[in-house]
């Protein structure tokens, strides 16, 4: 029986099964089985084999990387060429773009790499089309822009979300608050710090047994679902922010546009007429959470033209030094910082100090 047939069979059984407390255990088992089969689909067993075809992924440059995902002919290439001035082939038939086309924009001092990925078709997660490679590149992005046609948006949105979910990409979500640690002996140690609506010890045991894990500490710190637990056990999920870009708004009325503006994480634009690009760029900047640090040589004014851009969560003085050169940290004595992260301007700080956006820093070496 092929993998796809097995997956279809399990999905059919899940659709047949009623959801209630008595069947929760059974559904959890099925979900775990499904997740395992999906993973085998993405990373086929057996190594070696032929070459991987022409290079599909692109070298990572700049401070952040954004992928455009969408069905064929929704205007991804037009959007890229109008934003970045890169010519990605545009035509009125489907599947014009066949490999990844990179482009770079400078925005607020940061270099942002844009990737125009080929169109995704339904069933990409099962290996149809170039879907598998497209989504593999999408996993490496810091932000995903799902480009939708305004005339047929919501059906498409669901389909693309399903394809990305099937590949272990979680959009606009935080990693579930679950502590999971394998052990050598001692059985399953299960603690929940708040009431659980779905998971109990039996369900957790059966899901872990499916992964042949019989000794582990599991701590649930929020109301979690079986899917959350599977995500943590699999451990290969990526959590990426996402913006829905509704293209071709030149074809609808103002009243419809007002309704569209109320959808969360959503920006309506017209790639062809370059409408609303500034709003899109501003929204991209918000979602990327980049931190700009300006450098100040001793006895000179700060250089506001070329900031050092750090990703969110890695903004200590030490990270700043490593971004410039890895030998800097060895000679580091202390730093003087001006800006919102310190109480006094300037303030002497050590290498663990967390910097904030648009701080000015001066390093003092030993």
TrEMBL record:
Organism of this sequence: Scleropages formosus
Pfam families the UniProt entry points to: MMR_HSR1, MMR_HSR1_Xtn, TGS
Membrane is among the record's keywords: no
Leader peptide range in chain numbering: none
Subcellular location: Cytoplasm; Nucleus
Protein name (record): Developmentally-regulated GTP-binding protein 1
Gene Ontology, cellular component aspect: cytoplasm; nucleus
Molecular function as annotated in GO: GTP binding; GTPase activity; metal ion binding; microtubule binding
Gene3D superfamilies associated with the record: 3.10.20.30, 6.10.140.1070
InterPro entries (alphabetical): Beta-grasp_dom_sf, DRG, G_OBG, GTP-bd, GTP-binding_2, GTP1-OBG_CS, P-loop_NTPase, Small_GTP-bd
GO biological process entries: positive regulation of microtubule polymerization
Record keywords: Cytoplasm, GTP-binding, Hydrolase, Magnesium, Metal-binding, Nucleotide-binding, Nucleus
Nucleotide-binding in keyword set: yes
Record-annotated OBG-type G domain positions: 64-289
Domain TGS: residue ranges: 289-365
CDD domains tied to this protein: DRG (cd01896), TGS_DRG1 (cd17230)
């Amino acid at each position: 029986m092929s993998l796809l047939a097995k997956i279809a069979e399990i999905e059919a059984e899940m659709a047949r099964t009623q959801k209630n407390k008595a069947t929760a255990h059974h559904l959890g088992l099925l979900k775990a089985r499904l997740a395992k089969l999906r993973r085998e689909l993405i990373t086929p067993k057996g190594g070696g084999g032929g070459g991987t075809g022409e290079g599909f992924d692109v070298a990572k440059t700049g401070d952040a990387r954004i992928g455009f995902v969408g069905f064929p002919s929704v205007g991804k290439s037009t959007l890229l060429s109008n934003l970045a001035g890169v010519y990605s082939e545009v035509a009125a038939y489907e599947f014009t773009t066949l490999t990844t086309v990179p482009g770079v924009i400078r925005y607020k001092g940061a270099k942002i790499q844009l990737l125009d990925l080929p169109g995704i078709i339904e069933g990409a997660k099962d290996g149809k089309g170039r879907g598998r490679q497209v989504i593999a590149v999408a996993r490496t992005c810091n932000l995903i822009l799902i480009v939708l046609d305004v005339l047929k948006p919501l059906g498409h949105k669901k389909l693309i979300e399903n394809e990305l979910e099937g590949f272990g990409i979680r959009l606009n979500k935080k990693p579930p608050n679950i502590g999971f640690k394998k052990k050598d002996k001692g059985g399953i140690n299960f603690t929940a710090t708040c009431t659980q609506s779905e998971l109990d010890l039996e369900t957790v045991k059966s899901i872990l047994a499916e992964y042949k894990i019989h000794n582990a500490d599991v701590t649930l710190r929020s109301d979690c679902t079986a899917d959350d637990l599977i995500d943590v056990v699999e451990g290969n999920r990526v959590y990426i922010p996402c913006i829905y870009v509704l293209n071709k708004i030149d074809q609808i009325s103002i009243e419809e546009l007002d309704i569209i503006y109320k959808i969360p994480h959503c920006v309506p634009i017209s790639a062809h007429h370059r409408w609303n690009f500034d709003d899109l760029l501003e929204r991209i900047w918000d979602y990327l959470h980049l931190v700009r640090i300006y450098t100040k040589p001793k006895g000179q004014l700060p250089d506001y033209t070329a900031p050092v851009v750090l990703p969110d969560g890695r903004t200590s003085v030490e990270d700043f030094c490593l971004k410039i050169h890895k030998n800097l940290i060895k000679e580091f004595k202390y730093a003087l910082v001006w800006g919102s992260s310190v109480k006094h301007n300037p303030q002497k700080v050590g290498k663990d100090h967390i910097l904030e956006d648009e701080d000015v820093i001066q390093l003092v070496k030993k």
